[in-house]
Specification:
By secondary structure, the protein is of the alpha+beta class. 10% of the residues lie in helices and 18% in strands. A hairpin with an 8-residue loop joins strand 2 and strand 3.
């Protein structure tokens, strides 16, 4: 695509994994978004790839499998309380908190 001077945009929906600010249950997917923009043949492209949650779901799974804590403010448990214990993860939180 770079040699053709084209851009790439990819997005995907997913099952509910993210709870909106103030909610206890997941209602949104992580809705990954990726794009790439050429900057000319002599420069590397601009490439962005991210989820709309504070932490990607599979990163949370990897932390759980490794016995490591989740980042603060990345997830809530079933009661809606913040948790860093990946075994109690009920929903991820959106990046940017309430904004």
């Amino acid at each position: 695509a770079r040699s053709a001077n084209m851009i790439c945009i990819a997005c995907s929906g997913s099952v509910p994994l993210v709870a909106p600010h103030g909610a206890r249950d997941p209602m949104f997917g992580t809705n990954p978004l990726a794009y790439a923009l050429p900057r000319g043949l002599d420069k590397p492209p601009v490439v962005c790839d991210f989820a709309t949650s504070e932490i990607a779901y599979w990163d949370a799974v990897a932390l759980r499998q490794a016995g490591q804590a989740l980042p603060a403010n990345a997830a809530i448990d079933k009661s809606g309380a913040p948790t860093t214990d990946a075994h109690h993860l009920h929903a991820l939180l959106p990046f940017g908190a309430h904004k």
